[in-house]
């Protein structure tokens, strides 16, 4: 298949050790994680809490394994804290990612987020007020300027249990921010979990999507999570997420639309589940084979 050579495939450490739920995978070491990523055929990683914080030290582990840093998550609190607090933390994060050679910074607004709380994921999610939307959009544009100082972009992560989860919320964020300053991250798992149509989102925002997370959803676990009114993390522990090819999402039309729009950048497999039930190395291999089969890359 042509047009795919500028796509790079990475995998996130969250399947080995989960920063949202540190008890998941606490026994897995950093070196096991990055060695298994490389062995399963990925060339990029995001960052987990067991990774060395010093760029020189981190490079000394990643380079022998031919792994690059694709990006790393940043929690913004633009709706609940003074902008300056988010900015200070963002600059530190940006400079670390820049030193690691990454081009994009994953940003997610965590003001009022319930993704870490033991409450019903669908009924308790935040709905931003008009003032909060204004703080979010103006704050993100300022972060976008700061990213541009280093020739980087911010890619906004829509996410379950946050104020930017649904299609309507993504639409509002995209409409009210400057495309030059705020790009979008496309996460298949979060869109399908929320009941959105990933193909429609990709079609609408292909020119703003500069980072991709591939995760799949187990239908039977999703039905259980919805019926039980579970929280996000209970859903994760039950196994709602899995790797592409192991769940309900048909990735063939998704890779077709990504290819047809000449996407350039990282596609990162990100499938948090309980590593004691889903061996991360086996699932990384499964994901890599599936992508090769359906996409040829
Ligand atoms: O990109 C992500 C980072 C995680 O911390 C998050 O909770 C996960 O679901 C995700 O999509
Ligand atoms: Co994600």
Automatic annotation (TrEMBL):
Residues 39-286 form the Xylose isomerase-like TIM barrel domain. Belongs to the IolE/MocC family. It comes from Vagococcus proximus. Its cofactor is Co(2+); Mn(2+); glutathione. GO terms for molecular function: myo-inosose-2 dehydratase activity. Its EC number is 4.2.1.44. Pathway: Polyol metabolism; myo-inositol degradation into acetyl-CoA; acetyl-CoA from myo-inositol: step 2/7. NCBIfam families: myo_inos_iolE. Keywords: Cobalt, Lyase, Manganese. It catalyses: scyllo-inosose = 3D-3,5/4-trihydroxycyclohexane-1,2-dione + H2O. The gene is iolE. This is Inosose dehydratase. Pfam families: AP_endonuc_2 (PF01261).
